[in-house]
Amino acid sequence: TVGCVALDKHGNLAAATSTGGMTGKLPGRVGDSPILSAGTYADNAGCAVSGTGVGEQYIRHAIAFQTNWRVKENQQPVADAVQDCLDKVLNPGDGGIIAIDHDGNMALQYNSGSMSRGWSDWRGNRGVAIWK
Amino acid sequence: SRWAIALHGGAGFASPDMAPEKVEQFRVALEKALAAGEKVLQSGGTAVDAVQQTVMVLEDAPYFNAGRGAVFNAEAFHQLDASIMDGGNLDGGGVSAVKHVRNPIRAARLVMEKTPHVLLTADDADQFAKTNGLEMVEQGYFYDASSWAEFQQWSEKKNGVAPKAPSYPLNESAAVAEPTDTNFTCG
């Protein structure tokens, strides 16, 4: 799975996710990636989210929407919202979440062995990584 | 003037002892995708354009489980899913189980912008993409030796036998592709 979240200079957020699913899936199986609220969500009043991992879990728990809800309605910092979804909602090893809020705060966190990722912002923060 | 972007290339179980040249391939691909998104945002483009352009780069790279390089399903072919969402108006679109659109994220955006719906699926989603002028490819385009090796291992473990070939014809370049590191399984 691949995904991206962004904040533009106009203050708008967006999210996108794309995947081949999981090896050996039944033909016709749909995971979280194409489902808004499960693997993808964006709301200028909250945050933009893209997930990767065990899709059925992200669907069951509406992870992308839940992350946004935690930021928008529960006033959680985006990093806390993402970490709570990983620690308190999903199971260890389920995957990862990236998110950016309307102030440009971002989180790229996971509870699996790795998550290849990249980040950049107007302040000059920039990098790519695979492991911790 | 604030802008920011983050991307992922999948969560998995990358072995820390993965060959350095393979690690470098991943890093180069991630850098290329990040640069595509940065270019859009730095020039004042929209977040929707930035996430689409970034994901297209990742779909076109064979190292990730999306687009080219996608995993195999139980019947040894590829079915791809994608979605996109605009935080400014909560518009969104997605496609699932497509087999022939080269960049599923482009099809997802078409669903968002050209229909009143949020999700189209399977052959009808492919047909919708084709009708709207998106590039269509044969299944062999998505083949990658690493994904195939992973599927063979999965099939051997589950069924006791590893299939000899995908369920679609392989073109010559795909058939001779060198297997890549199978220790990196993207979610």
Could you write a compact summary of the structure shown?
Chain A is α+β, with helices and mostly antiparallel strands.
Describe the structure.
- The complex is a heterodimer of chains A (132) and B (187).
- Chain A has three helices and eight strands; from the N terminus they run E-E-E-E-H-H-H-E-E-E-E.
- By secondary structure, chain A is an alpha+beta fold.
- In chain A, the strands form three sheets. A four-stranded antiparallel β-sheet of chain A has the order 3-4-5-6. In chain A, strands 1-2 form a two-stranded antiparallel sheet.
- In chain A, helix 2 packs across helix 3 (78-89).
- Chain A starts with a strand and ends with a strand.
- Chain B is α+β, with helices and mostly antiparallel strands and 187 residues long.
- Helices cover 41% and strands 14% of the residues of chain B.
- Chain B is built from six helices and four strands.
- Chain B has helices at residues 20-42, 47-60, 104-114, 122-131, 145-159, 172-175, and strands spanning 4-12, 80-86, 91-98, 119-121.
- In chain B, strands 2-3-4 form a three-stranded mixed β-sheet.
- In chain B, helix 1 (20-42) runs antiparallel to helix 2 (47-60) and helix 2 packs antiparallel against helix 3.
- Chain B is globular and about 55 Å long.
- The model of chain B is unreliable at 181-187 (pLDDT under 50).
- Chains A and B meet through strand 1, strand 2, strand 3, strand 4 and strand 5 of A and strand 1, helix 1, helix 2, strand 2 and strand 3 of B.
Question: What's the arrangement of secondary structure elements?
Answer:
The complex is a heterodimer of chains A (132) and B (187).
Chain A: E1 2-7, E2 13-19, E3 40-42, E4 47-53, H1 55-60, H2 63-72, H3 78-89, E5 95-101, E6 106-110, E7 114-121, E8 126-129
Antiparallel strand pairs in A: 1-2, 3-4, 4-5, 5-6, 7-8
Helix pairs in contact in A: 2-3
Chain B: E1 4-12, H1 20-42, H2 47-60, E2 80-86, E3 91-98, H3 104-114, E4 119-121, H4 122-131, H5 145-159, H6 172-175
Parallel strand pairs in B: 3-4
Antiparallel strand pairs in B: 2-3
Helix pairs in contact in B: 1-2, 2-3
